Amino acid sequence: MLGADGHQYGVIGIREAIALATEQGVDLVEIVPDAKPPVCKLINYGKFLYAEEKRLKESRRKQHGVKVKEVRLGPKMGVHDYQVMLNRSKEFLSKRDKVKVSMRFRGREMAHMDIGRKLFDRFLEDIASSASLDGRPRLEGNTISAMLSPK
User: Fold this and answer.
1) Which residues contact 137 (CB under 8 A, 6 or more apart)?
2) Whole-number pLDDT of residue 98
């Protein structure tokens, strides 16, 4: 058993431990229940919970959840629009987010999918320096999409 000040009491009985806790005005908390014998500590339980919650909040604040950002391309896209989408994708990847690149074909664009496919492949080549491809680009209905992860 451990004291509030870090003093080790050694192996003592449960009644003695409870008496010691009430004498010092603190709580008897079981820290490691699976150990033989179980490890207990004399602490103020309210302060212990507060410190534990504070530690968890701090660790959660430092985490960065992976978000998926989407960039939509068009088969008739201009050069400037293409560059904007490319730079935006690189910006997302630099922030450690995943990027879903998609291109939708509408109406008569379906008859000329090869033009859009070339643009899509060129986009993947241009962004290859800062991203890795998570599988091949897939054609689902009238949309080609690919998932990119930061390198």
Assistant:
1) 120, 124, 144, 145, 146
2) 93
